[in-house]
Fold:
Amino acid sequence: MMTPSIVTADLICSVSMPKMETRAHFIAFLKFVHGLMRASGPLLELAVERSSGALREYYKAHLAEEKDHADWLAEDMELLSEAPSQIDHAAAATAGAQYYYLRHVGPHALLGYMAAMEFRPMSLADVESLETLYGAPAIRTLRYHATHDPEHAKELARVIDEHAKFADIICYSAFVTTRMLAFYLDERMRHA
Ligand SMILES: [Fe+2]
Ligand SMILES: [Fe+2]
Structure:
């Protein structure tokens, strides 16, 4: 049976992501990811405020998990003599849509957004290649996510399936978020 989490994963995997081929591509990627990570805590705080019951407990637990990740990434970037962007319009558009859903629609779209972030983690082989190129300390945050997100993805899939009534909005949010990630990454890399 196609559960909502399987449909969500299929939609996410149907979108191809641009390849990182140069240092400039990698830095553009890190800046975009930092822009997104900066919003993880505040989005989850809002989600805790707007939800109830088991969903609220899930968001609360994940909020504790996401703590400081943007700061870690900024520290990693410093090792590469880079800094996060002051304003990241692509991150504002991608993460910003979720503030709208949380305020004006409901607390379920964020599950799709989280799936877009966690259902397709960077492979450990890719992490190792990056470590070889840039040194392991600069890849700390990426390694942490590549290691832990497969477990987070399993838990998230369970939560999505428990909210099958909201499958449409969860799937849509996951798909649109993934399309935005691919579009903006491609745009950033082409201008890097
Ligand atoms: Fe994280
Ligand atoms: Fe995660």
In short: The two ends are 43 Å apart (CA to CA). Residues 118, 145, 148-149, 152 surround fe (ii) ion (ligand 2) (CB under 6 Å). The mean pLDDT is 97. Residues 23-50 form the longest helix (28 residues).
